[in-house]
Design goal:
Layout lengths: L10 H11 L20 E5 L6 E2 L2 E2 L1 H7 L13 E4 L7 H12 L8 E2 L15 E5 L4 H8 L3 E4 H7 L27 E4 L6 H13 L18 E4 L4 E2 L7 E2 L1 H16 L7 E3 L4 H17 L8 E6 L2 H29 L4 H6 L6 E3 L5 E3 L3 E6 L20 H4 L19 E2 L3 H12 L5
Parallel strand pairs: 1-4, 1-13, 4-5, 6-7, 6-8, 8-9, 9-12, 13-16, 16-17
Antiparallel strand pairs: 2-3, 10-11, 14-15
Helix pairs in contact: 1-8, 2-12, 6-7
């Protein structure tokens, strides 16, 4: 199984707190009709940008596909989770936006933003954190559990001479006095900011002064204070014909700037969002809770992840599929060696294990697989890009790797289980695979 260099997150960080962090689902969203899963129980993970919408414009197939996912009363037949690397809003706002676009009710508990798993990183919640991004970043941080939050604008105001690239934002007459802030103990990167030069400058100031921008830069202060980054997408699809720069591009700039100035690698305490395992672990929890709300007693056996980006959605789903297979294999091997007694706890200690806990505390089985479905309405287009036919080719021979620096690249993980034209075809394919009616 491919590993992440210096990446310290994983199922061990989230297993004990996942169930407590996620709220119970809203029962009225789920169908009362008896859609018994039988042996074919599954859940759907939808990317949003490039799959359901392009910028603010819904993709026509999106509304059509959701007619297959709800009954006549608008209640969901199967567990549905929206997994996006976007993070510039609250879950409630994203749920309301999706409800309007899709003409179905979407609960905040169905929405997973790139930063959603941060609510489980309780060891940082009492620290003074600097948050970077756009939108209501302070409100988002408090909602996730962070208690002492400093925004880039608050930092600019406290230290008026730090942000000087834009001459119109420099102090005009006398220089205002420095207000000073409590030392910053960690940096949280939610998403791409509006003024990149400001955020790059001030984040570098914080990292090179050990959280005290009044101090002098010191490259010897290494390793720097913790950095947690959400959303590694290099590119994303809006209304434009070609992809736009995402937060992953901002991270590339920050990493290279920091190394150029200090000679050291920027280090991450956590990388969150697709394609990280911690993101899919959390999404799986939400699917499992929805299955329980549907009254399913059969564990969810398969997840289907529908996305438009081979380097994020497909890579992440396949990466998680490999993780699940490895976990099940590890448990089977340990049970064979140690017998049934005590094997579960041993297996769960190795990279997560294949079991989890339900709302009532009972142990439930993890899914057997996570299958990836690539649509052609976003970043990937059949007309512009050919999927690799030979996974053994090197990165240079095959394609430029758009994933994050700290992910070891495996070309085979960019190969989707299925390629379809749009999300409507994707849902129809899943129902056909699972033997479910399309009514």
């Amino acid at each position: 199984m491919q590993r992440l260099r210096r990446w310290k997150t994983g199922w061990q960080l989230v297993k004990s707190s996942c169930e407590a962090a996620a709220k119970p689902l809203i029962a009225p969203l789920w169908s009362s009709r008896n859609y018994s899963p039988g042996p074919n129980s599954f859940g759907l993970l939808f990317d949003i940008d490039g799959v359901l919408v392009r910028g603010r414009t819904p993709i026509p197939a999106a509304k059509q596909c959701f007619r297959n996912l709800v009954d006549r009363n608008g209640k969901y037949k199967v567990p549905v989770v929206f997994v996006t690397n976007a993070g510039n809003c609250m879950r409630q706002a994203k749920a309301e936006h999706l409800s309007h676009l899709l003409d179905v009710e979407v609960s905040p508990d169905q929405v997973m933003l790139s930063h959603s798993p941060l609510r489980m990183f309780t060891q940082f919640h009492k620290m003074c954190v600097l948050v970077s991004g756009q939108g209501p970043v302070e409100e988002v941080a408090h909602n996730l559990g962070f208690q002492d939050v400093v925004t880039i604008d608050m930092l600019r105001e406290a230290y008026p001479v730090l942000d000087v690239v834009d001459h119109n934002r420099r102090p005009k007459d006398s220089i205002p006095p420095t207000k000073g802030l409590r030392p910053i103990e960690a940096v949280i990167l939610f998403g791409e900011p509006i003024r990149w030069e400001t955020n790059l400058q001030l984040i570098t100031d914080v990292l090179m002064t050990n959280g005290n921008p009044d101090n002098t830069w010191n490259a010897a202060r290494y390793p720097h204070i913790p950095v947690l980054a959400c959303n590694m997408d290099l590119l994303w699809m809006a209304e434009a014909r070609n992809p736009r720069f995402g937060h992953g591009m901002f991270l590339v700039c920050l990493e290279n700037l920091y190394k150029k100035v200090t000679g050291h690698e920027l280090r991450y305490e956590a990388l969150i969002g697709k394609p990280s395992v911690v993101t899919y672990n959390y999404a799986e929890l939400l699917v499992r809770q929805q299955a329980e709300s549907l009254g399913w007693t059969t564990p969810v056996k398969r997840l289907y992840a529908i996305g438009d980006n081979p380097m994020a959605d497909i890579y992440g789903a396949n990466f998680y599929n490999r993780y699940l297979h490895t976990s099940h294999s590890t448990k089977a091997q340990m049970q064979a060696k140690s017998g049934e007694r005590g094997a579960d706890s041993e297996a769960d200690a190795v990279d997560g294990g294949p079991s989890a806990t339900s709302a009532d505390g009972a142990e439930v089985a993890r899914p057997e697989s996570c299958r990836s479905i690539l649509v052609c309405t976003g970043v990937y287009s059949r007309d512009q890009e050919e999927l690799p036919s030979d996974p053994s080719q090197t990165v240079t021979e095959q394609r430029i790797f758009h994933g994050h620096r700290d992910f070891s690249f495996d070309p085979s993980l960019t190969q989707p289980s299925f390629v379809v034209q749009d999300v409507k075809e994707a849902v129809e394919l899943v129902f056909q695979e699972e033997g479910w009616p399309l009514d």
